[in-house]
Design a protein that fits this description.
With 468 residues, this protein is α/β, with parallel strands linked by helices. It has 13 helices and 16 strands.
């Protein structure tokens, strides 16, 4: 395959952007016209999932095409082994110009990129520090030089500058990684008054009482009414509010700032798309918009992620490529962040390393489903209690069912805290209970289904080479 036949790849990823806050996914709370452009010109995946719903592990999986237990990044505390192979290295060796700009959050210095300019740790929304290639590197949250302005604009500015200098005869692979809309949800001045006179509707499960499920749901410390802090809310609530009124006030403060941050991301996605059009690169460029995982926007009364529940598990994933993808397509097959690197390598004409565990999504992007396409996916969240009290768990999701096993074994995992608790199971019939409010694990009517799913879970665990 010649250089000119290989497409450019622009991979735009935000942090914690839930699919239910994108109008191309039928959002009831906001509009995202520029992200919608990608879906309208290409394809929307309705069942794209992450294999571990937390920032650092998901990013490592997207790079390596390996589950957390094999790429070594199990928790937020894990350092990424920069010596291991990943998609950036493979594309660089194949002649692609490679860069990562924005949120990195893998602690060690990026490898396999001709250029990087990345935030230390989570980074700041206003006047952020960034660590640029060619300057002294410091691991973790250390180092960087100050850039004046709003982080989403700055990341886009730097991305466009890099494209202006590097988009040429050789194809490019640019990972444009936004910090937004990660907590603490600090909007820019332009969008700070959006939704000021609106009441954002509460999700249907906002008043979840956590009955009929495992103890894990009630134990999680990410409730709107109790666990948002002063930094999140940015001011004290009005006097006299209590109960449901106070909870709604906190929700409105949270969700409006979250959506304001998304509005800035959407504007900057538009800037990137406009640049591709104006520079004549659009037709030869695959454009992806996604997030590192999903997020709870008041569903089950929560903010944050980590659980295998749908809002946390599901990733938005829209892709356009005028040469191959039919505009306005929708795909409902199970796709994973594990598949992203093999997809990029497929388009580049590069055979994926044997250790990668996903599959190229290219057939699905063309509207073709291989007869042996996966019918289930394996998930594992390793951290327990250290962040938001979410119990360690693993599980299986098929198109109809979800089986989750919460455990508390004493595992030697950096950053994980396990306390003795009785293991618990949850089983959800997603056809009858799409909001996951009622576990049917103890329901005798599901005994045969349960036996089959447990067998499939063990098979998926072995296939993932997860023997812990």
């Amino acid at each position: 395959m010649s250089k000119r036949e290989r497409p450019n790849i622009l991979f735009i990823m935000s942090d914690d952007h839930a699919a239910q806050a994108m109008s191309c996914y039928d959002s009831e709370i906001n509009e995202t016209p520029n992200i919608d452009r990608i879906a309208e010109e290409g394809i929307r995946f309705d069942n794209c999932f992450c294999t571990n719903s937390i920032c650092t592990p998901s990013r490592a999986t997207i790079l390596t095409g390996k589950h957390s237990h094999l790429n070594g990044v199990l928790t937020l505390a894990s350092d990424f082994d920069r010596e291991q192979d990943h998609v950036g290295k493979e594309l660089q060796q194949a002649g692609y110009r490679t860069a990562v700009i924005g949120k990195w959050h893998l602690h060690t210095e990026p490898s396999g990129f001709d250029y990087y300019n990345v935030l230390p740790g989570q980074g700041l929304y206003h006047d952020p520090l960034l660590k640029e290639k060619g300057k002294e590197w410091q691991d973790h949250n250390e180092g960087g030089e100050r850039y004046e302005g709003y982080v989403t604009d700055i990341i886009t500015d730097l991305s466009i500058e890099w494209l202006e200098e590097n988009a040429g005869e050789d194809p490019f692979f640019l990972m444009c990684h936004h910090k937004a809309p990660h907590r603490p949800w600090d909007p820019d001045e332009e969008h700070a008054q959006m939704y000021e006179d609106e009441e954002i509707p509460q999700p249907e499960t906002f008043e979840d009482d956590y009955e009929n499920r495992a103890e894990a749901a009630a134990a999680a410390t990410m409730r709107i009414e109790r666990d948002l802090n002063q930094r999140d809310l940015k001011r004290e609530p009005p006097e006299g509010l209590s109960g449901a009124e106070l909870k709604n006030w906190k929700y409105q403060r949270y969700i409006k700032d979250y959506l304001r941050c998304i509005a800035s991301v959407d504007d900057n996605v538009g800037r990137l798309l406009d640049y591709l059009e104006e520079s004549g690169l659009r037709r030869d460029t695959i454009v992806i918009y996604t997030s590192d995982q999903g997020f709870f926007l008041g569903e089950h009364g929560w903010f944050d992620k980590r659980f295998m529940y749908e809002e946390s598990l599901r990733m938005p994933f829209v892709v356009s490529y005028p040469q191959e993808i039919e505009p306005g397509s929708i795909n409902e097959e199970i796709a994973l962040n594990l598949d992203f690197p093999e997809t990029f390598l497929d388009y580049a004409g590069v055979n994926p390393p044997e250790e990668m565990q996903g599959r190229s999504l290219r057939p699905l992007l063309r509207g073709e489903t291989p007869p042996d396409w996966r019918q289930s996916m394996y998930y594992r969240y390793w951290m327990h209690l250290a962040h938001h009290g979410v119990y360690a768990h693993y599980g299986l999701r098929t198109k109809r069912y979800k089986l989750i096993y919460y455990y508390a074994d004493a595992l030697d995992v950096e950053g994980a805290i396990d306390e003795p608790k009785e293991p618990e199971w949850e089983l959800f019939d997603l056809k009858k209970d799409p909001l996951e409010m009622n576990s049917v694990y103890e329901d005798a009517q599901y005994s045969e289904v349960l036996e089959e799913l447990k067998g499939e879970l063990e098979r998926a665990k072995r296939e993932a080479k997860d023997f812990r």
